[in-house]
C-alpha cells in the first residue's frame, strides 16, 4: 500500500520534472529560433518557399471551412432573431462572431491540424533520416536554415489566413441571409458597418490570430526538432502538436478575450 | 606520445585522451585513448552497439564527452565556440549511414549545397565543381535525379561527393557498407580507398564488416565494452593472440562472446518443477 503510494508520488514527480525540463528546452529553442531569423536576410527564398508550403497550401481548407461556418452562423442567427423581428441584425452577429472569435480560433485549429502537423512531421523526418545532423556536419545551422523560416512563415500566415477565413465567412453569411432567406442587402451591410469597430473587433481578432500563429508554430517546430527519431516517436510528436496546439489556442483565446473585451 | 605503432603513417590529426561518455547509466566509453593519423584509412571496428557512431559524433562535436579531450588538428573540439566549431567542420566530411541527403533537393543541389553555403563562387563554377565531384564517384549521369530515385549505394556515393565538395582534410564514414549488395559494396570500398589516396586525407571508417574494412585500412582500432580492445596494422589484428579479437575477425559463433545468453543449466531448466519460477 505504502509502496504503491510512493510509486505514484515518484511517477508524479518524474512527470513534473520532465514537463518542466521540456518547457525549459522549448524556451531555449525559441531563443535559438529568434537568433536564427537573421539567416533569412541573405536567403529570403527560404521564407518564400515556406510561406507557400505553410500558408498557400492551407488556403483551400480555410476557404471551404470559412464559407460553411459563415453560412451556418447566418442560419442560426436568423432562426434566433426572427422571433423578435430583429433579423436585420443577422449580419452583426455573423461579422462580430467571425472577427472576434470564430475567424482566429477555427483558423488556428485548422492551421494546427494541417500546417502544424506537417511542420512537425517534416522536421521530425529530417531528424530521423539524419538530414539535420548532416547539415550540422556541413557547418550549416539547421535551426537557421530549416526551423526559423518555417516558424516565421507560420507566424506570418496565420493572421492572413484568419482574415481570409473571416472574409469568406461574411460572404457565406451574405449568401444565406440575402440570397437564401431574402433579407435586404443594404440592411445587411449597413448594420454590420455600424456595429463593427476597426480596432476593437478587427484589430483584436488580428492580434489573437497572430498570438495563435506564434504559439502553434512554436509548438510544431519544437515537437519536430525534439522528437524521438523513430517512426513511433514521430507519430507521437505529430499528435502532440495537434493536441497541445489546440488546447493552447482555446486556453489563450479565453485569456485574450478576457483581456481585450473585459470591462 | 603517439599511440599507433609506426607503419609509415604521418603525424596525428585526431588525438583522443581519457574519453568518457555515458548515456544514462550505460557507459559507452570509459577512459579511451586514440590517435588517428593525418593521412591513410583508419578503421574503427567492433560489435554493434559499442558506440562507434557515437565516437564519430564526439569527434565532430555533435556530442559532448563526460570527461576527456578530443583534439582535431590541434584544436580541442569541445572547447571551441560555435563559430570556430563550424569553421572546423568545413574541413571535415561525414558520410552518414543513411546518406543523409536532403530529400527536397536534387543530386546536383545536394552536392552544390555546401559549396553554395560556404563560398561565393558563381553558378557556372559551382556547376563545374559539382560535375567534377560527381564524376569522381561515377554519378555524373545522375545529376538531375532526386534522392528518392537513387539506390542505397548510389545515395551513399552522392553523399561522398557532397562530403568532398569542400576538399576536407578528413572524412568520417559511418557504416558505409551496411545493407549493400556485393557490387555496391565493392564500389564503395574502391571509392573510399581511391579518394583517400588521391586527396591524401584522413579517412575514418567505422564498420563491423571485417573483410571489406580490413582490405583498405592502414590502421585498425577494435573497440568493445567501452574500451579499445586492440589496435595496430590489419596484419597484426589478423594474427592477434587475443581470443576475443580472433572471434570478432573470423566471425566465430562461440568464444569469449558466448553463443548462449546467460541461462541456468538446460537439464535443470527442462526438468524444473512445474510452475516453479527461475531463481
Task: Lay out the secondary structure.
The complex is a heterodimer of chains A (about 260) and B (about 280).
Chain A: H1 2-36, H2 39-42, H3 44-55, H4 59-81, H5 90-128, H6 131-137, H7 142-180, H8 185-195, H9 198-226, H10 231-261
Helix pairs in contact in A: 1-7, 3-7, 4-5, 4-7, 5-7, 5-8, 5-9, 5-10, 7-9, 9-10
Chain B: E1 12-23, E2 26-37, E3 40-45, H1 52-59, E4 67-72, E5 75-76, H2 82-89, E6 92-95, H3 107-118, H4 123-136, H5 152-163, E7 170-174, H6 182-199, E8 202-207, H7 210-216, E9 219-224, E10 227-232, H8 234-238, H9 243-250, H10 266-270
Parallel strand pairs in B: 3-8, 3-9, 6-7, 7-8
Antiparallel strand pairs in B: 1-2, 1-4, 4-5, 9-10
Helix pairs in contact in B: 3-4, 3-5, 4-5, 5-6, 6-7
What does this structure look like?
The complex is a heterodimer of chains A (263) and B (279). With 263 residues, chain A is mainly α. Chain A has one domain. In chain A, 87% of the residues lie in helices and 0% in strands. In chain A, helix 3 runs parallel beside helix 7. The longest helix of chain A is centred in the middle third of the chain and has 39 residues. The N and C termini of chain B lie far apart (50 Å). Chain B is an alpha/beta fold and 279 residues long. Chain B has a six-stranded mixed β-sheet, sandwiched between helices. Chain B has a four-stranded antiparallel β-sheet with strand order 2-1-4-5, covered by helices on one side. Chain B has a domain of 183 residues: Rossmann fold (3-Layer(aba) Sandwich), CATH 3.40.50.300. The interface between A and B is medium-sized, with 13 and 23 residues.
Amino acid at each position: 500500500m505504502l509502496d504503491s503510494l510512493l510509486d505514484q508520488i515518484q511517477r508524479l514527480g518524474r512527470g513534473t520534472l520532465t514537463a518542466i525540463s521540456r518547457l525549459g528546452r522549448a524556451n531555449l529553442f525559441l531563443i535559438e529560433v529568434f537568433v536564427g531569423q537573421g539567416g533569412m536576410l541573405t536567403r529570403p527564398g527560404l521564407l518564400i518557399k515556406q510561406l507557400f508550403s505553410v500558408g498557400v497550401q492551407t488556403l483551400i481548407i480555410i476557404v471551404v471551412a470559412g464559407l460553411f461556418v459563415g453560412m451556418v452562423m447566418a442560419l442560426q442567427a436568423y432562426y434566433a432573431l426572427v422571433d423578435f423581428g430583429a433579423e436585420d441584425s443577422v449580419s452583426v452577429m455573423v461579422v462580430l462572431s467571425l472577427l472576434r472569435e470564430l475567424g482566429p480560433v477555427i483558423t488556428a485549429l485548422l492551421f494546427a491540424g494541417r500546417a502544424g502537423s506537417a511542420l512537425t512531421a517534416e522536421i521530425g523526418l529530417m531528424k530521423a533520416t539524419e538530414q539535420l545532423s548532416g547539415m550540422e556536419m556541413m557547418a550549416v545551422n539547421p535551426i537557421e536554415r530549416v526551423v526559423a523560416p518555417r516558424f516565421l512563415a507560420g507566424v506570418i500566415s496565420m493572421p492572413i489566413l484568419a482574415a481570409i477565413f473571416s472574409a469568406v465567412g461574411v460572404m457565406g453569411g451574405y449568401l444565406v441571409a440575402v440570397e437564401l432567406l431574402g433579407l435586404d442587402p443594404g440592411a445587411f451591410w449597413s448594420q454590420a458597418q455600424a456595429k463593427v469597430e476597426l480596432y476593437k473587433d478587427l484589430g483584436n481578432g488580428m492580434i489573437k490570430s497572430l498570438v495563435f500563429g506564434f504559439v502553434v508554430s512554436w509548438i510544431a517546430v519544437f515537437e519536430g526538432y525534439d522528437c524521438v527519431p523513430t517512426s513511433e516517436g514521430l507519430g507521437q510528436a505529430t499528435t502532440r502538436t495537434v493536441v497541445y496546439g489546440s488546447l493552447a489556442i482555446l486556453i489563450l483565446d479565453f485569456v485574450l478575450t478576457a483581456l481585450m473585451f473585459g470591462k | 606520445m603517439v599511440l599507433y605503432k609506426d607503419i609509415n603513417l604521418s603525424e596525428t590529426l585526431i588525438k583522443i585522451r581519457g574519453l568518457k561518455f555515458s548515456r544514462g547509466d550505460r557507459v559507452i566509453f570509459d577512459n579511451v585513448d586514440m590517435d588517428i593519423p593525418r593521412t591513410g584509412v583508419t578503421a574503427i571496428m567492433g560489435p554493434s552497439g559499442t558506440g562507434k557512431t557515437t565516437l564519430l559524433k564526439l569527434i565532430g562535436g555533435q556530442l559532448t564527452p563526460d570527461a576527456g579531450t578530443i583534439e582535431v588538428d590541434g584544436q580541442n573540439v569541445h572547447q571551441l565556440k560555435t563559430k570556430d566549431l563550424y569553421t572546423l567542420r568545413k574541413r571535415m566530411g561525414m558520410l552518414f549511414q543513411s546518406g543523409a541527403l536532403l530529400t527536397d533537393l536534387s543530386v546536383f543541389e545536394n552536392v552544390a549545397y555546401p559549396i553554395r553555403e560556404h563560398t561565393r563562387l558563381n553558378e557556372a563554377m559551382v556547376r563545374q565543381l559539382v560535375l567534377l565531384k560527381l564524376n569522381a564517384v561515377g554519378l555524373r549521369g545522375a545529376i538531375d535525379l532526386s534522392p528518392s530515385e537513387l539506390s542505397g549505394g548510389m545515395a551513399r556515393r552522392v553523399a561522398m561527393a557532397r562530403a568532398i565538395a569542400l576538399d576536407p582534410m578528413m572524412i568520417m564514414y559511418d557504416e558505409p557498407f551496411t545493407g549493400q549488395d556485393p557490387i555496391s559494396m565493392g564500389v564503395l570500398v574502391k571509392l573510399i580507398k581511391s579518394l583517400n589516396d588521391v586527396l591524401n586525407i584522413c579517412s575514418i571508417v567505422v564498420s563491423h564488416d571485417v573483410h571489406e574494412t580490413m582490405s583498405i585500412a592502414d590502421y585498425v582500432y577494435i573497440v568493445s565494452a567501452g574500451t579499445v580492445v586492440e589496435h595496430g596494422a590489419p596484419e597484426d589484428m589478423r594474427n592477434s593472440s587475443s581470443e576475443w579479437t580472433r572471434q570478432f575477425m573470423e566471425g566465430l559463433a562461440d568464444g569469449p562472446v558466448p553463443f548462449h545468453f546467460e541461462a541456468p543449466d538446460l537439464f535443470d531448466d527442462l526438468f524444473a518443477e512445474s510452475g516453479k519460477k527461475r531463481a
